[in-house]
Every structure is written in C-alpha cells, then in structure tokens.
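User: quick one
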Amino acid sequence: DAKTTQPDSMESTEGETVHLPCSHATISGNEYIYWYRQVPLQGPEYVTHGLQQNTTNSMAFLAIASDRKSSTLILTHVSLRDAAVYHCILRVGRNYGNEKITFGAGTKLTIKP
Amino acid sequence: EAAVTQSPRSKVAVTGGKVTLSCHQTNNHDYMYWYRQDTGHGLRLIHYSYVADSTEKGDIPDGYKASRPSQENFSLILELASLSQTAVYFCASSDRPGYNYAEQFFGPGTRLTVL
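Assistant: Done. Structure below.
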C-alpha cells in the first residue's frame, strides 16, 4: 500500500496561516487523500479529503499537486484549538471488502499565543 | 450528529487473560473498524466489518479476534492478552467507501494496559 510522509512537527502563532505538507509519491489512481486531526485523549476527527482537484471546506483548504504525489493542508487564521496531530491518509476503497487504510505518525502542530 | 461509543474507557488486564472491548454506533453505518494506537505513533487497522456477522482482517490482526453481532455493535477480543497489546484502541464507523468519500467517525478510545 502507498504510504505518506509528513514532518514530525510544525509550529505557528495564532492568526497565521499554516501549510502542512504530505508526500505520497507512490499513490495509486484510485486512492483518495484524506486528512484527519487528533487532539490528546480523543479519537481522530475528519478534516477534509480530495482526489485530484483542490478542495475547501469550513475547516481547511486542501491543495493537491497536479501529479498527485504531494498535497498540502492549509489552515488559515489558526487558533489554539487547531493544535493537534494532523494525519495525511490514503484510502483504497473498493466495493465491499479489502478496505485498507494506512495511518502515519502525522504532524504535531503547535500553536503559540 | 454521528455517535460512536466505546466501553470500557480504560482497562487493566493481566497477561494471558481475556479482554473484550466493545463499540456501539448509532450512525446506521455499514462499516466499522478497530484500530490501535501506540504512544507517538499513528493508527493501525486491526479488523473491520462491512456487514453484521462478518469480519475482515486489517493490517495487524494477529492476537485479535473481532465480532459483529449486529450493525450497531462491534467487539474486539483479545483471547490471551500480552504485554505488547498495551495501547489505546479506537473504534470507528463509516458509510460504504468506494467512489464517494466515506468519512470515518471515531469513538473516544479505550486505554488498555496489560500487566
């Protein structure tokens, strides 16, 4: 299964824009790129996802490279509540069965006041 | 809102003992998953299920069994608990993945310590 590579940690300040990179050089054509985040003592929370086009929602903007070998999660006007571990994940969904997900260690994002 | 609950929230077990972790979802989702997370590491898929009375192996199934008696309930069973199974266990549910995205909703986790 294709895997992802993320920096171990990043730091930012409240109000700034953060760019969280993810490398997935061996991504397959049918794999979606998902981002989840996790705060201590809680389960992961869905942030966003994409296949080929850039996507945006209330939580973040996902920029996907044209060759799909990398992506960047962009968080604008970050607050202390955005401090979490951000996981970049590839989903290989098939029709009923053989569902596999690869979770990496993620990037620990620290936000300074 | 989607809801996944887990019980117990924490447990201490003895080596060689049997442990059962339970998960309940009220999302009407077909898929349910069990993951483990070790300190400082990402999540790893143990077992999953896409229909009641059927389970599938994930990436690290050895030493674990799973049971899906109904759409709402999914259990993880450690027949002979070992020290290496000390971890936090997360349950999740989702709609059927495939050509449309299937957001996974996670429970709060169960912290298992095997002594």
